[in-house]
Amino acid sequence: MAKENTSVYIILGLLNHEDLSGYDIKKRADFMISSFWEIGYGQIYPTLSKLEQEGLVTKRVSEETKGPERNLYSITEAGREVLIQWLKLPEQKEYTKYEILLKLFFGQLVPREDSAKRIDAFKARHTENLKMIEMFKGNLERVLGKEQDHLFFYITVLFGERIYKAYLDWADEALKLLGDAGEQSGE
Predict the structure, then answer these.
(1) I need a labelling partner for 133 at 20 to 30 A (CA). Which of 1, 35, 100, 124 fits?
(2) In this structure, are residues 68 and 22 in contact, taking their beta carbons and an 8 Å threshold?
(3) In sequence order, which residues have a C-beta less than 8 Å from that of residue 62 and are 6 or more positions away?
(4) What is the DSSP letter of 20?
(5) Among the listed residues 136, 126, 129, the one whose alpha carbon sits nearest the alpha carbon of residue 156
(6) Which residues lie closer than 8 Å to 12 by C-beta, 6 or more apart?
(7) Rounded to an integer, what distance in angstroms lies between the CA atom of residue 15 and that of residue 133?
(8) Under 8 Å CB-to-CB from 92, ≥6 apart: which residues?
(9) 83 in Cβ contact with 13 (< 8 Å)
(10) pLDDT for residue 1
């Protein structure tokens, strides 16, 4: 089976909320979903062109007078139907890749302090991510009843919150185990 181009559905989903330029799509994706899915400009512009050819989006020149001329894209009814059909499909696979786990798995080849530093850096990154997720959560809690989308945004934020808390719990336990093992071996 060919790999599905998830960029199509990210773009359609973002355009379902508002008309956006390619640049705006990248900024929204970076702000709203990058903690669980990434999309780059190299995916956005070719996908927008394909979606336009297929009649799933339309393009118009922005009417803003400030700045350079830019194209704004809108989802069509056909695009919305494609998005809805995709939303109804079961997930193909949850992809999980953790380079840190690969490096720790083979960590017996480097000094224990290197692994501890790696885990400390992981913990620091995800402490910041948790703070951002908690900010999103607080903002969404204030507007949960205002738009139906907010509930679904909130559900994804709850998942992120649980994941980052689990990361931090794991980091604390891993650091303790490394410290305990170092004491036992006399390091």
Answers:
(1) 100
(2) no
(3) 21, 69, 70, 71, 72
(4) B
(5) 136
(6) 51, 56, 57, 75, 79, 80, 82, 83
(7) 23
(8) 4
(9) yes
(10) 36
Structure tokens at 179: 């410290």
Q: Average pLDDT in the 54-82 region?
A: 90
Q: Considering just the CA atoms, what is the radius of gyration of the chain in Å?
A: 21
Decide if pLDDT at 182 tops 90. Answer: no
Residues 6+ apart with CB under 8 A from 18: none
Residue labelled with tokens 């894209």:
73
How many other C-beta atoms can be found within 10 angstroms of the C-beta atom of residue 63? 7
Identify the band that residue 186 occupies on the pLDDT scale cut at 50, 70 and 90. low
d(CA 116, CA 51): 47
Q: Which helix (H) or strand (E) covers residue 111, if one does?
A: none
Q: Report which secondary-structure segment, H or E, holds 146.
A: none
- CATH architecture, domain 6-88: Orthogonal Bundle (1.10)
Report CA-CA distances (Å) from 39 to 53, 98, 175: 21, 18, 33
